[in-house]
Amino acid sequence: AKAGGRRTFRFFEPSMDENARARLQLQQDLRRAIAEGQFELHYQPLLGFSSNVMTGCEALLRWRHPERGMVPPLDFIPLAEDTGLINEIGDWVMRTACAEAASWPSNIRIAVNVSPVQLKSPTLALRIAGALAAAGLPPERLEVEITEAVLISDDDVALGILHQLHDMGVRIALDDFGTGYSSLSYLKRFPFDKIKIDRCFVSDISAGSSSAIVQAVVSIAAASNMTTTAEGVETGAQQSALRELGCTEMQGYLFSAPKPAAELHKLFATEAAA
Ligand code: C2E
Ligand code: CA
Ligand code: CA
Ligand code: CA
């Protein structure tokens, strides 16, 4: 019976083992990526609807893995969050994005994604202030994007950090709006300047329900002094529907995919010439 038990144990073990090993490997690889500078940022333009001019860029993290090539953020950010490595990675993202943005035209903002895990660290606002100062970037040119998960956690530390940042002049955007479980009452408690409407509402904007949701978000935003950005705009039809509904800004492949910093300067030049 003992041998059989062991056999049963062995029968189930390999896949779990494999999983744990893959996770551990990824974790080691992540530490090495930080130490060896394997991360880079790509930037995706945000465009104002009224004038079609670029108002900012969102920094999106890329990992150039030595063996696996480009690893998409959603394949490693969850593990980075579980292990706390996101704090170190997030600090790198913030410093790099602010330094890069300091060389852009002064009307172009930089939007940086901040994980709910980073918002548990009471020194975050101080570290962001440090990144801004080191880059010589005015706080008004930084926008942090946070997801609804932060709201649900009902976390006073997160709320405090967001107020500190907002008081410094940093803008706060609520990312992926409509995908989480937050209630509208949170919009009043948190100092949001902007709501980013998730791609899922944009992709089927021609459907009545999505269009009604976008319309509702736009009016809530307007009534509370917030702007709205539509994410994942891919077609001209989506663009006109969103303009019609009164969205402030758009972002998506229709105008530009995320690009390395070097290619961005060409877009700035085109804008300036236009
Ligand atoms: P997100 O913040 O919602 O970013 C938008 C995602 O949509 C990006 O995916 C972007 O490349 C993609 N996208 C932009 N326009 C279009 C479009 O027209 N169509 C489609 N289908 N997709 C579009 P990406 O770069 O793979 O990033 C995925 C997520 O990873 C981000 O979602 C964000 O939650 C997270 N992330 C990326 N960089 C960072 C970072 O530096 N820190 C943290 N904490 N999270 C990050
Ligand atoms: Ca975002
Ligand atoms: Ca988003
Ligand atoms: Ca998203």
From TrEMBL:
Domain of life: Bacteria
Domain EAL: 23-272
Name of the featured protein: Diguanylate cyclase
Organism this protein belongs to: Bradyrhizobium oligotrophicum S58
